[in-house]
Amino acid sequence: MPAQATIGVLSPGAMGSALARVWERGGARVVSTVAGRSLRTQALAAGLELLAGLVEVVELADIVVSVGPPERAVEFAAAIASACRTADRHPLVADLNAISPQTVELVAAELDPAGCELLDGSISGGPPTPDTRTVLYLSGPSAERLASFSAAGLRTRIVGSSPGVASALKMCTASVYKGFTGLLLQALLTADSYGLADLVLADLGDSFGGSAAGAPARLALAASKSDRYPAEMREISRTQREAGVGGELFAAMAEVFERLAATDLATLSPEEAARVSDLGEVLARAAHKSLR
């Protein structure tokens, strides 16, 4: 770990606060802010070194990490750039959002005029803890600066020398991980309408094993975060379209998760969703609109 280096995290939600904690446990100083954030985010960030606002974070940070909903990646970059101008600071900015290489270019366009170098990153796996195997992929000429921070439970891999590579990797892997969840949801909701959900799940278990057996919690957890999935699906769609393979599949998958986000199942918090085990309850709640 670089001596005296400080990481600033925007924002300390479930993933951001978990990253902050594993870096802190590795010996780094990590600062963040919850100014303007929800009560849930404030609770998740409890115990972190919290500052008054983003300008104060930028004033201290050598590396600013942006992690949040993909549809806010460019907005976050603009806010960081503004804070850097105010503070007259030029930290390395690591964008770890689930965005397409094309959106990475928009992020860079916000940061470049403020004199901030962009480090492209993506995360595979859930929020890291000392016992997880979450992977942080990085691409860019200064990737080693963030990769050098020790963090138990977070493996870091440099996958390219220019921004966009790490995000392209995320778009490919997420298309399988989240695409499978979307397919499972559609299959089981359809099966349930015919009274066949248990039989369909048992048949899938022969080929997919634990992925099928863990369907209730998998679907509940996806529902609890489904408000941000449509934007990620559209980022995947854009990536695939730009690659020349067509973007229609994940444009449609965005609609699947939009429907899920409007259901009663989506009212669960991720913490509540992780404890769900009854398939019937999951499918019943995923079939009914939320009253919130």
Instruction: Report the C-alpha radius of gyration, rounded.
Output: 20 Å
Major beta sheet, specifics? 8 strands, mixed
Order of helices and strands: EHEHEHEHEHEEHEHHHHHHHH
Mean pLDDT: 95
Amino- and carboxy-terminal Cα gap:
46 Å
Which of globular, elongated, flat, extended, rod-shaped describes the shape? Answer: globular
| Helix/strand structural class | alpha/beta
Percent in helix: 40-55%
Beta-strand residue percentage: 5-15%
Regions with pLDDT < 50 over 5+ consecutive residues?
Answer: none
Characterize the structure shown.
The chain is of the alpha/beta class and 292 residues long. It is built from 14 helices and 8 strands. It has an 8-stranded mixed β-sheet, with helices on both faces. α7 (165-193) packs across α12 and α10 packs parallel to α14 (279-286).
Keywords:
single chain, alpha/beta, globular
Topology:
Elements: E1 6-10, H1 14-25, E2 29-32, H2 39-44, E3 49-50, H3 54-60, E4 63-66, H4 73-87, E5 92-95, H5 101-111, E6 118-124, E7 134-139, H6 143-147, E8 154-160, H7 165-193, H8 197-208, H9 210-213, H10 215-224, H11 229-242, H12 248-261, H13 270-273, H14 279-286
Parallel strand pairs: 1-2, 1-4, 2-3, 4-5, 5-6, 7-8
Antiparallel strand pairs: 6-7
Helix pairs in contact: 3-4, 4-5, 7-8, 7-10, 7-11, 7-12, 10-14, 11-12
